[in-house]
Design a protein that fits this description.
Blueprint (H helix, E strand, L loop, with lengths): L1 H30 L3 H15 L7 H14 L1 H10 L1 H23 L6 H29 L9 H5 L6 H23 L5 H32 L3 H6 L2 H22 L6 H17 L5 E4 L5 E3 L7 H36 L1
Antiparallel strand pairs: 1-2
Helix pairs in contact: 1-2, 1-3, 1-6, 1-8, 1-13, 3-4, 5-6, 6-8, 8-9, 8-12, 11-12
Length: 337
């Protein structure tokens, strides 16, 4: 049952990156859209993410619950040493959701709409940035359980070049996913070309930021190159992601959009897979060679068993309802067109 819980944990992280990340990417796209195109872009963004944007936070909640219940040592260590980026990320989620709601449903249309738009766009950048920082910090080896001063324990555990580079990489990935997803959400050819252009630029930005991640890892003494290219599984995943990216752009420039979402999701899945499989089951790498393992630092066996059954049974009820929600709004869009 332990491996069932771990599978749910990894899947929840992946789905939050793919679905919640695309929602953040919508705000990132708005942030970097010219004033002349922002009004139309906002309409497309709202039509695309409006029905399900809150539902995507379910995956983050599941991740937190699994760590809290099943792996309390890991949860407590991360929530203590990384409480600053975690707090900023959570404040970003709240600010983004509040601004998204108020700018569409505020009874009074006035200058506050401009403030809501800015809060939505900037928090859409800040939130995945600090999500990436948290992810980078977990494997950077900078978390020091023996730290005796504030800066060492709560600042330098996450404020380093590697974590910042991972944060920027996460932002560009979210923007890329959103641009790819949004291409199929509009019938306006001009807008489609704009999203294609943004997808290309964000893809280039992701490659550059990915390079910065490797450079920062080398400077910080993190064996990222070995994790990614030092085993057949990771190397195969990277090759598959690269080939799928080439196929994605071939289909895109040929005018086919049916498979590009799946291909973009596949690439992100391969990136996450290759960066986690090498040091599994160690989910947190501590300073001076320590680690927190999903196998060694789990909760009581009965707790893990109960958690596993709860996840299995819960998915029977939750997943069909979620798919039906998405299906219903997709049907509504088709009927409107």
């Amino acid at each position: 049952m332990l491996y069932v819980v771990i599978a749910f944990l990894w899947t929840a992280i992946l789905l939050y990156l793919l679905l919640g990340g695309a929602d953040y990417g919508a705000g990132i796209i708005e942030l970097f859209t010219s004033e002349n195109n922002k009004a139309q872009t906002r309409k497309t963004l709202y039509r695309a993410i409006g029905p399900v944007w809150e539902a995507n936070h379910m995956w983050l909640i599941i991740t937190i619950v699994i760590l809290f219940v099943g792996f309390p040592d890991i949860y407590s260590r991360m929530s203590i040493n990384l409480h600053i980026p975690l707090t900023i990320m959570l404040l970003g989620i709240i600010a983004r959701g509040t601004a998204f709601t108020f700018r569409h449903y505020d009874a009074v249309v006035d200058d506050m709409q401009h403030l809501y738009n800015k809060i939505f766009a900037y928090s859409s950048f800040v939130t995945p940035f600090f999500l990436g920082i948290i992810a980078g910090s977990a494997v950077s080896g900078k978390i020091d359980p023996a730290a005796t001063d504030f800066l060492s324990a709560y600042v330098f555990s996450w404020l380093d070049w590697f974590s910042v580079a991972v944060g920027l990489f996460t932002v560009t990935i979210c923007g890329f996913l959103a641009a790819i997803y949004l291409i199929g959400e509009t019938d306006n050819e001009k807008e489609k070309k704009m999203f294609v252009s943004k997808a290309l630029r964000l893809n280039i930005a992701a490659v550059v930021c990915g390079g910065l991640v490797f450079i920062a890892a080398t400077l910080e003494g993190i064996p990222l190159l070995e994790w990614v290219f030092g085993n057949a599984i990771g190397l195969t995943a990277i090759i598959a992601a690269t080939l799928s990216l080439a196929l994605l752009w071939f289909l895109l420039f040929k005018g086919g959009i049916g498979w590009i979402r799946l291909l973009a999701g596949f690439q992100v899945t391969m990136i996450l897979f290759t960066t986690t499989v090498r040091h599994f089951p160690n989910i947190v790498i501590l300073k001076n060679g320590g680690y927190l393992s999903l196998l060694e630092h789990r909760g009581h066996d009965k707790t893990i068993e109960a958690l596993g059954w709860a996840l299995l049974l819960g998915s029977i009820f939750i997943l069909p309802a979620l798919f039906y929600l998405i299906y219903s709004f997709q049907r509504k869009r088709i009927d409107v067109h």
